[in-house]
UniProtKB/TrEMBL annotation:
The gene is Mtrr. This is Methionine synthase reductase. Forms a multiprotein complex with MMACHC, MMADHC and MTR. Residues 274-536 form the FAD-binding FR-type domain. Keywords: Amino-acid biosynthesis, Cytoplasm, FAD, Flavoprotein, FMN, Methionine biosynthesis, NADP, Oxidoreductase, Phosphoprotein, S-adenosyl-L-methionine. Its EC number is 1.16.1.8.
Length: 699
C-alpha cells in the first residue's frame, strides 16, 4: 500500500533484456529518500493500473528492440493506445515523464520511447518533466543519472500543483465564489512558499540516495605507482575524490541446496517465445581459408520432421549455453566446484525489502547449480553499476573495495565506460582482477541477466532446399587485453564451432559439397520472423542487395528462392536483381563463389564485387568497399530506386558499413536528381517509410 496518496506516483517500465526494469527499480529505491512512494509495475500488467483514471504523475521507462520496435512487454499497451477511435483528449488528465533507452548504432534510436511519447501527446497527456533519451552506444548512465537527479523536484512540483488544483475544487464545492477567490489567493501564497522550501530541501535530499564515501572512511593500501588508470588502479582526481555511489540494492533471492536428485527442466521452459524446435545439424562447411582474418562457417539444420516455417529474409534464434570451462572456473572461484551437479531450490528471501520481489522467470525453481550457470545466466554480461555496488560488500581487501566503489560512482563514470563497458569486461574478469571479492550464488542470480538466445539470418529457401535451414556466421573473437587476461570466442559462435568441428570438411566455398557425415548433435531453435525484410511481393519489381562479408547470408536465400520461382513459373515476368558484395581477400574470404552460377542462369542479373585488402597494380585503383562500387553504378542505382520503383536491401555491420552505404545512396540521389543533399535525404526517408529501403544490421 502507498503511504500517502498525494505523495504517490505511478512508475511503469517496459523492458526487453532487463535494463529498463533495473532503472525503474533504481527510481523506486530512491523515491523513499525523497518522501515519495513509487507504485511500480511492468507496463504489460494492465490489470494493476489504469491510465484512464490515473490522477497522480506517471513515470515511464521504456527500451527499444529490433528495428525500432517497443519491447515485447509493451506491445499490448502500444496497440491499445494506438486505437484510432480514441479522442484527442483521452489522456488530457494525465501528467507524465518518459525515459527512453536505445542505441544510436541503430537507425531508429529510442523509437520505442518516442512512439509512446508521441502517442500520449496526441491523446492530450502533458509532460511534467522533459523526456530523456539514453544512448547505450556511449553509456546509458550519461543521460539516466542526471535525468533521475532532476526527476524528484519535477515530481514534487507536479504533486504540489495537483494538490493545489484539488484544493481549489474542494473550496469551490464548499464556499461561495468570492470566498473561494480569497482562499485561493492565500493558497497561492502558501504554495509559492512551499515550492521554494521544496527547492531548498531538495538540495539536501538529492544526495540522500547515495553514500558519500570519503577517503578517510577506509584504510587504503599503499598507492600503486602506475601513472595511468586501469581496471584495478585509479589516478587523481578519481583516486582522491569523495565518492557518490549508488544505494545498495536489497537482497531478495535465497538459494537452498537439496539432497534429492531429478532431471533439469527442458530448454523450452526457459523461453517465452512459444514453440522451440530441437533439430540436428546436418552439414557444416568452413567458407573461409585458414589464413583468413575471420572464420566463417555455414551450418545446415534438418527441419524436415518439424513444423518450423520460414521465409527468405527471416531470422531465427539459437539457444546456446555458456562456455563449459568458464562455468567450471566460476564454480571454483565461488568455492562450489563439488556442488555443480547438486540440485538447488531458488526462492524469494523472506522479509526482503525489494518491492514486488519474485524469482526471475528465467531461473527454474529447481535445477542443478551447473544448469543455472550454463543455460540461464548471461555470465558474459557487462556488469551494471548496481552489480558493482553489491560486489563492494563482498570484497575484503580495502584497496579493491575502494576501486569497485570508484567504478560504480558518479565520479568514476569515465573509468567505468573505459575499463568495463568498452573493454567488454564480464564477471569472471572482475573476479580475477579483484581476488578478495567473493560473491554469493544468490547475488549472481539477482544481478546477472537472462542468457539470451542469439539471432541469425536465414541463408536458404525452403522452396529450394525443402526441410533444410542454412545460416552463416563469423566465429567471434575477443582478444586478450589489459582488462581481460585471456582471449575468448563468442558465446554462441564459439559453442557452435566446437559443436560442429567433427563435421567440418576440407572442401569449401560451395553450398553443394557432398559427402559430409551426418551429425547427431542437436540445437534448440525458435523462429524470429521478419515483418519486412522479404522479397518484393511482385516478382517483376527489381531490387538491389548490398551484403559484404556474412551480410550476404539472407541474399543467398533470396536468390535460391528466385531461381526456384523462375523454374516453376517460366511465364512470369521477373525484375532485374543486383548484388553488391565485398570482402577482404578474393582468395581467402569470398564466401560464395557459386554466385557466378546464379549469374549464369539469369537469376542474378548484376554482380558487383570488391576486395578491400587485395593489392592492385592497376593505374586506377579498384573500389575497396561496397559503397564505392555503388557510386560507380550511380545511374543504375538511381534508376532502379526512382524510375523502376525498386527495392534496396542492406545486410551486415551497422557501424562500419550500413551508415556508409546510406551516405552513398544520399549522394547518388542528390547527384542523379540534381537536388541538394537535404532533398535527397527526404527521398531516402520516404523510401524507408514505404519499406523499399530495408536493413538487417547488427553492431
Amino acid at each position: 500500500m502507498c503511504c500517502e496518496s498525494k505523495r504517490r506516483f505511478l512508475l511503469l517500465y517496459a523492458t526487453q533484456k532487463g535494463q529498463a526494469k533495473a532503472i525503474a527499480e533504481e527510481i523506486w529505491q530512491q523515491a523513499g529518500a525523497h518522501g515519495l512512494e513509487a507504485d511500480m509495475h511492468c507496463i504489460s500488467e494492465m490489470d494493476k493500473y489504469n491510465l484512464e483514471t490515473e490522477k497522480d504523475p506517471v513515470v515511464i521507462v521504456i527500451s527499444t528492440t529490433g528495428t525500432g520496435d517497443p519491447p515485447d512487454t509493451a506491445r499490448k499497451f502500444v496497440k491499445k493506445i494506438q486505437d484510432k477511435t480514441l479522442p484527442p483528449d483521452h489522456f488530457a488528465h494525465l501528467q507524465y515523464g518518459l525515459l527512453g533507452l536505445g542505441d544510436s548504432e541503430y537507425m531508429f534510436f529510442c523509437n520505442g520511447g518516442k512512439t509512446v511519447d508521441r502517442r500520449l501527446q496526441e491523446l492530450g497527456a502533458q509532460h511534467f518533466y522533459d523526456t530523456g533519451l539514453a544512448d547505450d552506444c556511449v553509456g546509458l548512465e550519461l543521460v539516466v543519472d542526471p535525468w533521475i537527479d532532476g526527476l524528484w523536484l519535477a515530481l514534487k512540483e507536479a504533486l504540489q500543483l495537483q494538490k493545489e488544483k484539488e484544493g481549489m475544487n474542494n473550496a469551490v464545492d464548499a464556499v461561495s465564489s468570492s470566498l473561494s477567490t480569497a482562499l485561493h489567493a492565500v493558497h497561492e501564497l502558501n504554495l509559492s512558499s512551499e515550492v521554494q522550501n521544496l527547492k531548498l530541501e531538495d538540495g539536501g535530499a538529492r544526495g540522500s540516495h547515495v553514500l558519500s564515501q570519503k577517503l578517510d572512511d577506509i584504510n587504503l593500501v599503499a598507492p600503486a605507482r602506475e601513472s595511468e588508470p586501469s581496471l584495478i588502479h585509479s589516478v587523481p582526481p578519481v583516486s582522491q575524490s569523495a565518492l557518490n555511489i549508488p544505494a545498495l540494492p536489497p537482497e531478495y533471492i535465497e538459494v537452498q541446496f537439496q539432497d534429492a536428485q531429478g532431471e533439469n527442466p527442458h530448454l523450452s521452459s526457459l523461453t517465452s517465445e512459444g514453440t522451440t524446435f530441437e533439430v540436428p545439424v546436418s552439414k557444416a562447411i568452413q567458407l573461409t581459408r585458414e589464413d583468413a582474418i575471420k572464420t566463417a562457417l555455414l551450418l545446415e539444420l534438418d527441419i524436415a520432421d518439424t513444423a518450423f516455417e520460414y521465409q527468405p529474409g527471416d531470422a531465427f534464434c539459437v539457444m546456446c549455453p555458456n562456455n563449459v570451462s568458464e562455468v567450471e572456473e566460476l564454480l571454483r572461484i565461488l568455492g562450489l566446484s563439488e556442488k555443480g551437479d547438486d540440485f538447488v531450490c531458488v526462492k524469494v528471501k523472506q522479509g526482503t525489502k525489494k518491492k514486488g520481489a519474485s524469482r526471475p522467470q528465467h531461473i527454474p525453481e529447481r535445477s542443478t547449480l551447473k544448469f543455472i550457470l550454463t543455460w540461464c545466466l548471461e555470465i558474459r554480461a557487462i556488469p551494471k553499476k548496481a552489480f558493482l555496488r553489491a560486489l563492494v560488500e563482498c570484497t575484503s581487501d580495502a584497496g579493491e573495495k575502494r576501486r569497485l566503489q570508484e567504478l560504480c560512482s558518479r565520479q568514476g563514470a569515465s573509468d567505468y565506460t573505459r575499463f568495463i563497458r568498452d573493454s567488454n569486461v564480464c564477471l569472471l574478469d572482475l573476479l580475477h582482477a579483484f581476488p578478495s571479492c567473493k560473491p554469493s550464488l544468490s547475488l549472481l542470480i539477482e544481478h546477472l541477466p537472462r542468457l539470451q538466445a542469439r539471432s541469425y539470418s536465414v541463408s536458404s529457401s525452403n522452396l529450394y532446399q525443402p526441410g533444410r535451414l542454412c545460416f552463416v556466421f563469423n566465429v567471434v573473437e575477443f582478444p586478450a587485453g589489459p582488462s581481460r587476461p585471456v582471449s575468448r570466442k563468442g558465446v554462441c559462435t564459439g559453442w557452435l564451432a566446437e559443436l560442429v568441428a567433427p563435421l567440418l570438411h576440407p572442401s569449401k566455398n560451395t553450398l553443394d559439397t557432398k559427402g559430409e557425415s551426418y551429425s547427431t548433435e542437436k540445437i534448440s531453435i525458435f523462429p524470429r520472423p521478419n515483418n519486412a525484410f522479404h522479397l518484393p511481393a511482385d516478382p517483376s519489381v527489381p531490387f538491389i542487395m548490398v551484403g559484404p562479408g556474412t551480410g550476404i547470408s539472407p541474399f543467398i536465400g533470396f536468390l535460391q528462392h528466385r531461381q526456384k520461382l523462375r523454374e516453376q513459373h517460366p511465364d512470369w515476368e521477373f525484375g532485374e536483381t543486383w548484388l553488391f558484395f565485398g570482402c577482404r581477400h578474393q582468395d581467402r574470404d569470398y564466401l560464395f563463389k557459386q554466385l557466378r552460377y546464379f549469374l549464369e542462369n539469369g537469376t542474378l542479373t548484376h554482380l558487383e564485387v570488391c576486395f578491400s585488402r587485395d593489392s592492385s597494380t592497376a593505374e586506377v585503383a579498384p573500389p575497396k568497399y561496397v559503397q564505392d562500387i555503388l557510386r560507380l553504378c550511380a545511374k543504375e542505382v538511381a534508376r532502379v530506386l526512382l524510375k523502376d520503383r525498386g527495392y534496396f536491401y542492406i545486410c551486415g555491420d551497422k557501424k562500419h558499413m550500413a551508415d556508409d552505404v546510406s551516405d552513398a545512396v544520399v549522394d547518388i540521389l542528390s547527384m542523379e536528381m540534381e537536388a541538394d543533399k537535404l532533398e535527397a535525404m527526404k527521398i531516402l526517408a520516404m523510401l524507408r517509410e514505404a519499406k523499399r529501403y530495408l536493413q538487417d544490421v547488427w553492431s
